[in-house]
């Protein structure tokens, strides 16, 4: 057995291995369609497929996972999506076996197999219009009727299919259908279309093909050609499994075997074993939409800045928001694997990154709404270099923090008329500056409008690293030195949707649930000097403010931009 989270799929693989079914091989694949960026739902499938292969391989079996672009719908696909998907998978920490695969690189095999099905009398060219085809298909309660074209001869079918590929017909004029059973209770088995005419330039194969295979036909054969043992997919494909099996069972094993050997995915000697499709529940998360179509709509309408907007549930958005690969893989372990649909609380995703950053992110100080403080009794021109630990528990070294007479604190840490229980700074009271001295506010300076613009304070030089004598100072606030602080733009992100289920039918449109305050941009923030050295994607806990990361796109030397990944505590009322 392998190590890794135990679940029904591992159980099944263990049984197959014990029965000697695949000769000690666990071959999986992750088959994205390059029609958008990957989202956190895909991460569940990636962790499952790559994780399974990895852990069985670690346990001494032959485990591998292929990355296969399922590119049979060229009008919606692009190279941009292919590149983004590759990068996201690598970023998560997974590696595919060998070269990237494309369903399109099997187009010739798929075509030849279609010809083989025609020759076997198991596929025919149908010339019903789409409306007629729908009518003949029947309904859930009514059986379908045979197409009048079902009885075409093999010769006629071969001729028409060849001419479909030769580009003689318009889109939709004919289709190739598997000859199964128009009375099947499973609509997917009522002579499904396996090829259609599409006159379009394909991003991988150009103008070569005029006919394109349908998903249900291409997927099972691609799995077989790659000698996949376990084909894992989401539950909506459960009703398609009989078709998956039908196609493979009706193609001769010798033909599948020979193609598999020709592609170098199998040896001629090993017995041919069909891949087995197994379904699991897709990941749903509340306050989130998880369909590429809807995410694309947000991008195209400019409602977010792009697929990698830090509010998006895409992997590139989560990455830009400051999620680590580890936090996402851990989340996928936590949600587990089952065969019943459920909705995961987004708080679980948030606590996964919060826990990771709490344990690992260096601490720093950043003042979001600066208020100037001048220490009247601190010698002018003097500067002390304080050493603060980067982490309270983990030994990851120290950071240097200059202390001088002019500082900034956060506006919200001072109140002239403090509310009850206020433990921060007020006129005449004391507070500790984090990692430094205790100060007392002596005087408040205001502008003409009555706005507080500066505090004149005094410091107690006996309080560095020790409590003041004879009195207790409860509050601790963060600060930065005025002369050496680093200017920063801070982006505070909140949930993109206000409602737990933006897809709820109660909304005319999921976009009605968008949170108008999901992004707040704070300019003129001041971070401690050590942030001048921060690199793109570095994460920090800004003390008392939350977890932040350096934006990998917009931050530049001399122009620091940080994103709030997550607050210090879960602040959303349940
Ligand atoms: P969407 O409906 O968001 O467009 P999709 O299923 O069409 O997603 P694909 O590119 O076909 O996207 O997905 C690649 C793989 O990822 C498939 O095996 C699919 O089952 C899996 N997958 C997609 N969404 C989820 C999800 N929410 N949870 C788990 N697996 C998913
Ligand atoms: Mg799909
Ligand atoms: Mg899709």
TrEMBL record:
Domain Glutamyl/glutaminyl-tRNA synthetase class Ib catalytic span(s) in chain numbering: 26-346
Location within or outside the cell: Cytoplasm
A GO CC annotation given for this chain: cytosol
Keyword Cell membrane: no
Positions occupied by motif 'HIGH' region: 32-42
Motif ('KMSKS' region): 289-293
EC category: ligase
Keyword entries, A-Z: Aminoacyl-tRNA synthetase, ATP-binding, Cytoplasm, Ligase, Nucleotide-binding, Protein biosynthesis
Quaternary structure (record): Monomer.
Family of this protein: Belongs to the class-I aminoacyl-tRNA synthetase family.
Protein's UniProt name: Glutamine--tRNA ligase
Annotated organism of origin: Pseudohongiella acticola
